[in-house]
């Protein structure tokens, strides 16, 4: 009986794996639920990272309390950052449509410049929501901070970019209905939370030198 308890106990490898998976599923559910209005996507994204970063630092925490605390406190900055990101998406999409190989005025040099700028802005935007979750500052400084943290940790930044973009792109563009259906089930069940959980290890390593040792990842509005 003791062996069975030890195998399934919270401190066992089995217990830790399923405990972590359970946390990922819960955070994924909260993220999808709070992203449904679309305009709240940024706040939900920040809250997911706030919850996971805090869990990494402090271990077992209240996922529900942490998620909705961040959602409330970081709503303004996260929503504005999401709107800024959407504006950039529209601008770059229009520019690619204008100057890309199949565009109205195809200009190779301009097209590649747009691609480079789009990658830089995309990486910065992917950093800004975890940065909002971890630091207090003005919105302008948070974006600047995100840019420099990404530039200073370029290999990790590229990993974050790949993890956030490639699996979702492949899931949405697959020609197989079976693969598409399976992929959507995974994303809805745990996919976003799992991606954020993996990324959180990178962000936590990047952020740690800038966080006081006795502070939790702070939120701001």
Which SSEs are present, and which pair or pack?
Layout: H1 2-8, H2 13-35, H3 41-58, H4 63-73, H5 75-99, H6 108-134, H7 139-152, H8 154-173, H9 177-207
Helix pairs in contact: 2-3, 2-9, 3-4, 3-5, 3-6, 3-9, 5-6, 6-7, 6-8, 8-9
What's the gist of this structure?
By secondary structure, the chain is an all-alpha fold. It contains 9 helices and no strands. The chain has helices at 2-8, 13-35, 41-58, 63-73, 75-99, 108-134, 139-152, 154-173, 177-207.
Descriptive overview:
The protein has helices at residues 2-8, 13-35, 41-58, 63-73, 75-99, 108-134, 139-152, 154-173, 177-207. Helix 3 crosses helix 6 and helix 8 (154-173) packs antiparallel against helix 9 (177-207). Residues 217-221 have low confidence and may be disordered. The chain has nine helices and no strands. With 221 residues, the protein is mostly helical.
Distance between the termini: 51 Å
Q: What order do the SSEs take from the amino end to the carboxyl end, as H and E?
A: HHHHHHHHH
| Strand portion | under 5%
- Mean pLDDT metric: 88
Rg estimate, integer Å: 19 Å
Total number of beta strands: 0
Q: What's the number of helices?
A: 9
Content-based structural category: mainly alpha
Can you tell me the residue ranges where pLDDT is under 50 for at least 5 consecutive residues?
217-221
| Morphology call | globular
Largest sheet: none
Helix content: over 70%
């Amino acid at each position: 009986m003791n062996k069975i308890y030890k195998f399934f106990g919270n401190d066992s490898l089995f217990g830790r794996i399923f405990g972590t998976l359970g946390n990922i599923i819960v955070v994924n559910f909260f993220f999808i639920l709070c992203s449904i209005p679309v305009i709240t996507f940024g706040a939900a994204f920040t809250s997911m990272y706030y919850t996971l970063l805090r869990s990494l630092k402090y271990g077992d925490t209240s996922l529900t309390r942490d998620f909705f605390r961040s959602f409330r406190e970081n709503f303004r900055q996260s929503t504005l950052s999401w709107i800024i990101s959407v504006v950039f998406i529209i601008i770059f999409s229009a520019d690619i449509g204008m100057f890309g190989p199949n565009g109205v005025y195809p200009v190779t040099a301009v097209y590649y410049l747009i691609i480079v700028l789009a990658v830089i802005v995309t990486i910065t935007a992917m950093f800004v929501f975890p940065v909002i979750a971890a630091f207090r500052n003005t919105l302008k400084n948070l974006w600047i901070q995100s840019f420099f943290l990404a530039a200073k940790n370029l290999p990790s930044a590229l990993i974050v970019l790949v993890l956030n973009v490639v699996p979702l792109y492949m899931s949405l563009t697959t020609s197989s209905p079976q693969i598409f259906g399976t992929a959507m089930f995974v994303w809805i069940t745990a996919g976003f939370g799992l991606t954020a959980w993996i990324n959180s290890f990178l962000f936590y390593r990047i952020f740690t030198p800038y966080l006081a040792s006795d502070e939790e990842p702070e939120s701001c509005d």
